[in-house]
Amino acid sequence: QARLVESGGGLVQAGDSLSLSCVASGFTFRQWNMGWYHQAPGKERDAVAWINANGNPEYADSAKGRFKISRNNSNNTLFLHIDNIKPEDTGTYFCVRIEQIQAPPTMWGQGTQVTVSL
User: Fold this and answer.
1) Residue 55 and residue 43: Cα distance in Å, rounded?
2) Which of 17, 24, 59, 61 lies at a CB distance of 3.0 to 4.6 Å from 76, suitable for a disulfide?
3) What mean pLDDT is predicted for residues 71-90?
4) Contact assessment for residue 13 and residue 86, using Cβ atoms and an 8 Å cutoff
5) CB atoms within 10 A of CB 44
6) Cα distances (angstroms) measured from residue 37 to each of 72, 95, 107
7) pLDDT band at 97 (very low <50, low <70, confident <90, very high)
């Protein structure tokens, strides 16, 4: 059964850096495009970044500069690194599998919660 499991969330202070991970299983990870979504409290899920099977990243306009998406196809892991984290980064971060870059996800993880304090 295909599965995405995120980790790395928690309570952090504004200005800190944070790295999230997502371990994929049950499918051939290296063949798939992947991405991260963010859902702030009370809001819809928004795309943050995407990465193709070859490791080429793209970012939503709001994520350019502070976010970095990467992947390790050897251990089926997707990463999201956030620098200078801000209170508006609070929310749940979801790892997703996608058919094409910027396309709607076809598979979601359960999410990892990030809370940013001042």
Assistant:
1) 29
2) 24
3) 97
4) no
5) 7
6) 19, 7, 12
7) very high
